[in-house]
Amino acid sequence: MRVVFLGPPGVGKGTQADFVAQKYEIPKLSTGDLLRESVAKETSLGKEAKGFMNRGELVPDAVVIGLVEEKLGSPECHKGFLLDGFPRTVTQADQLSTYLTSRGEALDHVVYFSLSKSEIVRRISGRRSCPDCKAVYHLESVPPKSEGMCDACGKSLVQRNDDKPETIESRLAVYQEQTAPLTEYYRARSILVELDGAGLVSAVQDRLVALLAQPRVG
Ligand code: AMP
After folding, report:
1. How many helices (H) and strands (E) does the chain have?
2. Taking the mean position of all CA atoms in its chain, how far away is CA 26?
3. Taking burial as the number of CB atoms within 10 A of a residue's CB, which of 16, 22, 131, 173 is the most buried?
4. pTM over 0.85
5. What is the mean pLDDT of residues 155-182?
6. Active-site residue 88, yes or no?
7. 52 CB within 6 A, ligand 1
8. Closest CA relative to residue 12, chosen from 81, 68, 92, 84
9. 109 in helix, strand or coil?
10. Shortest-distance atom of ligand 1 to CA 88
């Protein structure tokens, strides 16, 4: 299975990506996670990406494409993969298509997560995560058992720099301008399926499993 998760930030892609990766035993490639890892390790790529990420802007295409192609080339991705947060521009989508075609492969599904703006802002503002094991919580919907502490490893939870109120609006604007056109891009290729991202994590999961069970549309 080769799948892309598309949709605005905060819509639940990462949460559902972990579930799908486990259920279908395919690697999850989240460009946001890979970039945050590079920033934390202070690699040269991380140093280049950091400013863009903190401002809520996209990291340049060439940097992200290189990162993804390196991962897709590894043996663990040969049987399938789930891309979370990539592609985010038409250039990235074109490059992905060229890369897969050169290997005689194609995407099976592009799942577009839809959600109202007010719910997106609510989800992003309340999101907290563990810097160590990366577990993700929400202050109201999925609170940790002890306030501010990770259930799994006891570390203090943090708010992502780019989840602060001043950055949320610019990330949503960047999404509208640069990533939203990809819904039409993939719809025109008869590969887009739409998922209602509202409601409980388990309800979204059930809808997602039903969608992924459908044969490839195009
Ligand atoms: P995410 O965790 O998917 O919300 O990504 C966090 C940030 O990483 C984004 O706001 C961008 O700055 C950067 N980023 C992640 N994926 C991409 C991508 N495909 N292209 C460019 N920048 C990206």
Report:
1. 9, 7
2. 15
3. 16
4. yes
5. 94
6. yes
7. yes
8. 84
9. strand
10. 19
- Bridge partners of residue 112, in order along the sequence: 6, 194
Nearest to 9 by CA among 161, 138, 142, 175: 175
Directed axis angle between helix 90-102 and helix 61-72, to 10°?
A: 30
Residue located nearest, by CA, to atom 19 of ligand 1:
86
| Ligand 1 contact via 162 beta carbon (within 6 Å) | yes
Which entry of 2, 28, 123, 171 is annotated as an active-site residue?
171
Residue recorded with tokens 């907290």? 128
Residue whose tokens read 């609170």: 143
Residue pair 17/11 in contact by the 8 Å Cβ criterion: no
Q: Rounded distance, CA 184 to CA 53, Å?
A: 26
Above 70 in pLDDT, residue 218?
no
Active site includes 13? yes
111, burial (CB in 10 Å: exposed 0-12, middle 13-18, buried 19+):
buried
Q: Is 172 in the pocket of ligand 1 (CB under 6 A)?
A: no
Domains, the chain, ranges and CATH?
2-26+79-212 (3.40.50.300)
Q: Which residues pair with 4 in a beta bridge?
A: 83, 110
Question: Ligand 1: which of 31, 94, 95 to mutate, most ligand atoms within 8 Å of CB?
Answer: 31
pLDDT in tens, 95-133: 999 999 999 999 999 999 999 999 999 999 999 999 888
Contacts with 137 (C-beta within 8 Å, 6 or more apart), sequence order: 127, 128, 129, 130, 143, 144, 150, 157
Residues in the chain: 218
Q: Which of 36, 88, 123, 128 is catalytic?
A: 88
